[in-house]
């Protein structure tokens, strides 16, 4: 039986990771501001498809974990929690930097393929996927739960890139981001820290 609460927690955890400022999101924002909404949407679809690939890789690994050992899942949760805490540290350090974020705009090209290649070239996405799936899934969940959770995260990934394309194609959004970057990074750091500690704690509770 699928636990809807667990699925919601997984989706929220993945969306927090996906929406946080990073190379893919910042480049998508830059494309939207420079080349317009349609171009950014094509670029975002490429980014999302790259995420799908790593999501399927992570889901196959998670299915094997759930079928093998409770202790393997515990270790995975701890590692995922440490990864989220590392992201919190990175975001917190960025929040303390006073210089505005520099945004490099990709050169013109085949936008879908540029987005796809960018995320395919980032195998750390597997760690983010495994961390997000670990948040909501437990040893009693079956392969169906893994499949549904993965599908929900895929939808969240597409939604994230769609929102970046839509919002940053509005005039002045990049300037607003630069202005509030430190506050945004601070909030993101807090969210990552809460999720990281929560995931580590869940590894030792049933």
UniProtKB/TrEMBL annotation:
Record keywords: Cell membrane, Membrane, Transmembrane, Transmembrane helix
Statement: the UniProt record of this protein carries the keyword Membrane: yes
Domain of life of the organism encoding this protein: Bacteria
Residues that span the membrane, as ranges: 45-65, 70-89, 143-163, 184-204
Gene source species: Ruegeria halocynthiae
Subcellular location(s) per record: Cell membrane
InterPro entries assigned to the protein according to its UniProt record, in alphabetical order: LeuE-type (IPR001123)
One GO term describing the cellular component: plasma membrane
Membrane-related topology note: Multi-pass membrane protein
GO molecular function: amino acid transmembrane transporter activity
Keyword Nucleus included in the entry's annotation: no
Name recorded for this polypeptide: Threonine/homoserine/homoserine lactone efflux protein
Primary location: membrane
């Amino acid at each position: 039986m699928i636990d809807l609460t667990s699925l919601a927690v997984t989706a929220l955890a993945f969306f927090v990771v996906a929406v946080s400022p990073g190379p893919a999101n910042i480049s998508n924002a830059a494309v939207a501001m420079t080349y317009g909404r349609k171009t950014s949407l094509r670029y975002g679809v490429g980014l999302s498809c790259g995420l799908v690939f790593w999501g399927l890789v992570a889901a196959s690994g998670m299915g094997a974990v759930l079928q093998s050992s409770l202790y393997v899942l515990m270790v995975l949760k701890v590692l995922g929690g440490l990864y989220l805490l590392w992201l919190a540290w990175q975001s917190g350090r960025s929040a303390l930097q006073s210089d505005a974020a520099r945004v490099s705009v990709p050169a013109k090209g085949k936008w879908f393929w540029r987005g796809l290649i960018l995320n395919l070239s980032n195998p750390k996405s597997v760690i983010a996927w495994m961390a997000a799936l670990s948040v909501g899934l437990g040893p009693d969940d079956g392969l169906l739960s893994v499949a549904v959770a993965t599908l929900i995260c895929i939808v969240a990934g597409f939604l994230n890139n769609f929102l970046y394309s839509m919002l940053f194609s509005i005039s002045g959004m990049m300037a607003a981001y630069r202005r509030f970057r430190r506050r945004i990074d601070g909030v993101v750091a807090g969210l990552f820290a809460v999720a990281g500690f929560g995931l580590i704690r869940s590894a030792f509770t049933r």
